[in-house]
Amino acid sequence: MILSTTPAIEGRTIRNYHGVVTGEAILGANIFKEFSASVRDIVGGRSAAYENELKKARTIAFDELAEQARELGANAVIGIDIDYETVGSQGGMLMVSVSGTAVTLV
What angle do CA 3, 70, 22 make, to 5 degrees? Predict the structure, then answer.
C-alpha cells in the first residue's frame, strides 16, 4: 500500500478512484505521563512519554486508513492530510486523524 500526501505518484497512472478513506486514533495519557510532561515543560526538554503516545496514535490511524483502502480494492492512498488535536477534559487525550483518497495505480 502506497501512502502519500501528494495528489499523484510520479511515474504511476491512477486507474480508479475509490473515494475518501479515514483513520482515527484517540489515546489517553495517564496521570504519571502527564506529571512527567509537566516537569519537563517547567525545566525544558522533550516529553518522550507524549512523543511515544503520539507515535502510537499516528500508527493506529494510518493502519486504519490503509485497511479501509484495501477493503475498497485500492493499492494506494493519495492526498493524505494528517491532523493532531488534544481532546477531552483539560486536553487529556491525544487524537490523530488522517484522510485521503483511495486509488488503484497501474
Answer: 60
Q: For residue 28, give every residue at least 6 positions away whose Cβ sits within 8 Å of its Cβ, in sequence order, or none.
A: 88, 92, 93, 94
| CB of 70 closer than 8 Å to CB of 102 | no
> What string of H, E and C letters represents the secondary structure of 3-64?
ECCCCCCCCCCEEEEEEEEEEEEEEECCHHHHHHHHHHHHHCCCCHHHHHHHHHHHHHHHHH
Residue appearing with cell numbers 491532523: 83
Contact 82, 31 (CB under 8 A): no
Question: What pLDDT, in 10s, does the model give residues 43-90?
Answer: 556 667 677 778 889 999 999 999 999 999 999 999 999 999 888 777
CA neighbor of 105 nearest in space, from 2, 23, 5:
2
